[in-house]
Specification:
Strand order of the largest sheet: 1-2-3-4-5
Order of helices and strands: HHHEEEEEHH
Largest sheet: 5 strands, antiparallel
Structural class: alpha+beta
Helix content: 40-55%
Shape: globular
Number of helices: 5
Radius of gyration: 14 Å
Strand content: 25-35%
Distance between the termini: 29 Å
């Protein structure tokens, strides 16, 4: 009885992240900042810049949860989002989705994982309560 069903309002979290969507760079930064410690190597952030000079500007993020992979690439002022599904380590499906659907499905996957991970639970609470802080 973890209470995760009542603790997290996914609509509120998605609305908070959508508010940051006006600037997609802020949106991906919020996700990278809030989820970095909780997901560890399951969150891959690609930054602008070359091999020896990295920028703080994020070009893309990849989040792997269970058999799903959530990719978001910054393309100017838009975010290109893809969700892939694997089975047995082999990608069997990949679909391009809008930012809203990508956020909702990512948050739902995070909510499911939060039931078993205190770090993910805390990150999700920070997204819901803290917004872009």
């Amino acid at each position: 009885m973890s209470g995760t069903d009542d603790s997290f309002d996914l609509e509120l979290a998605a609305a908070s992240l959508r508010a940051d969507q006006a600037d997609v760079r802020i949106l991906v930064k919020v996700l990278a900042d809030q989820l970095g410690d909780a997901l560890g190597p399951r969150l891959v952030v690609q930054r602008s810049g070359g091999l020896f000079k990295k920028s703080d500007e994020i070009r893309s993020i990849r989040i792997t949860l269970e058999d799903d992979q959530f990719d978001a690439d910054v393309d100017g002022t838009t975010l290109r989002c893809t969700i892939g599904h694997s089975s047995g380590g082999i990608r069997i499906r990949s679909e391009k989705v809008g930012t809203d659907e990508w956020l909702e499905r990512l948050l739902a996957a995070l909510k499911a994982e939060a039931a078993n991970s205190q770090a993910v639970r805390q990150a999700l609470e920070n997204i819901v309560i803290g917004g872009s802080s």
